[in-house]
Amino acid sequence: MLSRRAFIKSTALLGCSAAAHPLLSTIAFAEAPGENRLVVIILRGAMDGMDAFQPYGDPNLRKLRRKLSLGPDQGALDLDGFFALHPDMAGLMPLWQAGELAFAPAVSTPYRDKRSHFDGQDMLEAGTGTDLNLIQQRDGWLNRLLQNMPGVQSETAYSVGLEDMKILDGPAPAKSWAPQTRFRLGAQGQRLLQHVWHDDPLFRAAGEQAIEIVSSGVGTVKEEGGPTRDARALARFSADRLNGATRIATFSISGWDSHANQGRVIGRAMNRLSDAILTLRDGLGKNWQRTTVLAMTEFGRTVRENGSGGTDHGTGGAMLMAGGALRGRRAYGGWPGLAEQDLYADRDLMPLRDIRAYAAWALHDLFAVSRDVLEQSVFPQLDMGDNPRFLA
């Protein structure tokens, strides 16, 4: 049976869409918004980008880290003679070799110094700067994108999983579902339920929309067991929807907070991320060539390894990009260096570019969203700068 939490979650965004209908009345609902596809994966817990993409060519790395990020000498896979891929993401190496994997090694949101996961994730998903109070950052940037895309309908975007995805919160239509939910209800049971909730406007709207989602053919996902099953299930479900009418999907992968024993902790998270991306590739088939995956985290980790074999909350971090639409096999945005004078606040990797700029250019190139809309509405007050041209 569908849990109450999943039931309400699966319908909340649709409830918003109904309320916002006048705002969207000029959109041609019958049109599909093109063939390009976007998957945004939120990595909750602050991925250590310097461990994921190890800058072993920087002579200062070994002075800062003695057990972590040891480069090709300890099993990492060389990428370009300077960076190496963490061995727990070795499954992605064929994508790198095919030009379907890239990364930006030194990026961040505008969030600085307070180092709270909750606030950092809110800012990442809201896509705003520091000029707004965190309480005011209610809508997600993907939802604001939908409000500016022609042909938007409720199938255009999907939030997948049980975690709250603020990135899709807002008045534009989107759907939310968890692949492990069950909703089985016969016609008679459905009529009875509709009778029960008839006089409860909120529950009636939520229930009707849940039935609509189920009736559209959303089913359960069968995925083999193992430590990465949940991540593969999210990716499998996303791929299924993206092969249909959906063009944007987002889900999250947790487990990146690595204050101690990072070698063990982050390895599991990397395996989940790697398998999720490979499942997307396999599930999307030929549509993979029109797909861009952006894996983003709320902030980076400290450049110095701590005494517990981990790293603490930092500032600059890495963004992973994947997909057949990518101009990959390269690092984007340069490298700030790890010399003492190059660090942020004497402890963090210096971000060279706002992570929102990469997301904005992806939206510009994938969905032809104008720069004015991106800089003023989707990411308010963002200066996109030059196009890094990471899409083929």
UniProtKB/TrEMBL annotation:
Residues 1-30 form the signal peptide. Keywords: Signal. Pfam families: DUF1501. InterPro entries: DUF1501, TAT_signal. This is Uncharacterized conserved protein, DUF1501 family.
